[in-house]
Amino acid sequence: MVPALSVLMVLLLAAGWLMSARLVDGVPALAVASGRTAASFLAISAIAALRPRSWPDVRKGFGRPGGFVLLAFLGFFAYYSGTLLGIGRIGASRVGLIVSLLPCVTFVIGIVAFGERGTVRKVCGTLLAVAAACGYAVADGAGGDAAADGATLSAGVLLALGGTFTYALYGYVYRQRMADISPLAALPAITGAGAVMLGLTTAVFVPMGGVTAADWGGVALLGAGLTAPVFLISHELILRKGPLHTSAVALVVPFLIRLGEWALGWAGAPGPLVLVLIVACSAGVWLTVGGSRRAQTPATGSGTTDDTGEGAGVPQIRGTS
């Protein structure tokens, strides 16, 4: 089940980014982010409404305002704002390079803040995947970016790093605050709050002149048809396998986007070096998330980790809101 969910998530993510690339040609990026989040909220809420058995857990999710507001801020407002504002300062390829460090950031957060145990295989796999992503950005993604002065470059890097850090932290906070209810029940509250935060920011700071009804239709399709399923699948994977697995698998997405651009005629064919880096990245992801897992006795008590069952690796925090 997990391999199938991982493959489906990667394909949907790649398709979503390719569609987003076309939409942002005529729609401000932050408007695309807020629109797709709102459409995802409506789609996920509609699915939850059609499943009466999920209603008690949906009410439980909305009954944790401290949890869903924090998650909306980390995973939607801060992540989208940081990365999209960073693109405006240092270009998409540099921001893509920084976001590709997500597995490494997730790994470090897990060890430092949540007491997760690392292995030599996971360390080597993460380092190989990140190194391949860095090499890919240098070899295939540097062209076309405008030069930036020192202050602008520093600001863009800090914004993108901030967004990447908050998204890595989001995975762990989600498992703390919402691990006892299904993603379908938790996401209406989280995506709703995220849509409100992004929508208010867009309404105040983003000029909307020139955006057509067809543009909004494309944004709605992106959110309901691609982003909403990705949310449900990725959050299920976070609960089943943990944030490191989910972010490491998603590291393949930038390379699929590059191949998709070639297949659609938007860019030239990737060269031999780029193909080698794609293979190296895939190998690093496999090392990071692969390997056998030995059943262990569940730990108990506040702040400990349960390494067995569906919520493997979930920090057991008591009394969360």
TrEMBL record:
<feature type="compositionally biased region" description="Low complexity">
    <location>
        <begin position="297"/>
        <end position="306"/>
    </location>
</feature>
<feature type="region of interest" description="Disordered">
    <location>
        <begin position="293"/>
        <end position="321"/>
    </location>
</feature>
<feature type="transmembrane region" description="Helical">
    <location>
        <begin position="62"/>
        <end position="80"/>
    </location>
</feature>
<keyword id="KW-1133">Transmembrane helix</keyword>
<dbReference type="InterPro" id="IPR000620">
    <property type="entry name" value="EamA_dom"/>
</dbReference>
<feature type="transmembrane region" description="Helical">
    <location>
        <begin position="185"/>
        <end position="207"/>
    </location>
</feature>
<feature type="transmembrane region" description="Helical">
    <location>
        <begin position="30"/>
        <end position="50"/>
    </location>
</feature>
<keyword id="KW-0812">Transmembrane</keyword>
<feature type="domain" description="EamA">
    <location>
        <begin position="5"/>
        <end position="134"/>
    </location>
</feature>
<feature type="transmembrane region" description="Helical">
    <location>
        <begin position="213"/>
        <end position="232"/>
    </location>
</feature>
<feature type="transmembrane region" description="Helical">
    <location>
        <begin position="270"/>
        <end position="289"/>
    </location>
</feature>
<dbReference type="InterPro" id="IPR037185">
    <property type="entry name" value="EmrE-like"/>
</dbReference>
<feature type="transmembrane region" description="Helical">
    <location>
        <begin position="151"/>
        <end position="173"/>
    </location>
</feature>
<feature type="transmembrane region" description="Helical">
    <location>
        <begin position="244"/>
        <end position="264"/>
    </location>
</feature>
<dbReference type="GO" id="GO:0016020">
    <property type="term" value="C:membrane"/>
</dbReference>
<comment type="similarity">
    <text>Belongs to the EamA transporter family.</text>
</comment>
<feature type="transmembrane region" description="Helical">
    <location>
        <begin position="92"/>
        <end position="114"/>
    </location>
</feature>
<dbReference type="Pfam" id="PF00892">
    <property type="entry name" value="EamA"/>
</dbReference>
<protein>
    <submittedName>
        <fullName>DMT family transporter</fullName>
    </submittedName>
</protein>
<keyword id="KW-0472">Membrane</keyword>
